Amino acid sequence: MIQLNSNHLLYLVTAAQWTVLLSLIAFAGGALVGLPIALMRVSKVAALRLVASAYIQLIQGTPLLIVLFLSYFGLGIMGYKLAPLVAAGVALTLYAAAFLGEIWRGCIEAVPRTQWEASDCLGLNRFQQYAYVVLPQAMRIAIPPTVGFMVQIVKNTSLASVIGFVELARAGQIVNNSTFEPFVIFVVVGAIYFVLCYPLSLAARALERKTNAGR
Q1: Do residues 138 and 34 make contact, with C-beta atoms less than 8 angstroms apart?
Q2: Which one of 41, 75, 174, 187 is at 20 to 30 Å from 32 when CA atoms are compared?
Q3: What superfamily does domain 20-168 belong to in CATH?
Q4: CB burial class (10 A; 0-12, 13-18, 19+) of residue 67?
Q5: 2 vs 193: CA distance, rounded Å
Q6: pLDDT tens string 48-87
């Protein structure tokens, strides 16, 4: 029987680097799209609130697996063939944006109403209210849940294997097909995921305690 060796471990570690890269792409893209979504959700314009709410409900109500299929196979059928990394990045960006937008919307609304009223009294326009008063306070509130959500992004990258992207979970399957040692292989894969996610979980809890203490 073929035993797990250093080459297999190196392959898994390399795949873990792709998992980290995909996670960073998803988080960065999700943040860029999620912030406008959050601002639309708290807008005074009803149409913007409706569009943002519809987007969030659509993405959160659709399995990520379906979003991945649509971004890779669906766009491919339409003539827009994307590389697996790009398709996975697009799908996870859409997914992350919906959740981050809702998280940040809650954080914006958590800023005390007196802060809004005080900025109104100072004669600040809507942009100045957000830039100088609301968003700095909302960002402080948002750090713990945002860091915590990053754990979900890392774990959900495992679904990218269905469109041919070789991340950590898919690499584990490939190594298992050559070694036939599923218990050992997936214990190692699980340990690597733990190493990636546990520090983020600790950071989220520590930041949450610090934020609550600050209040």
Answers
A1: no
A2: 75
A3: MetI-like (1.10.3720.10)
A4: buried
A5: 24
A6: 999 999 999 999 999 999 999 999 999 888 888 899 999 9
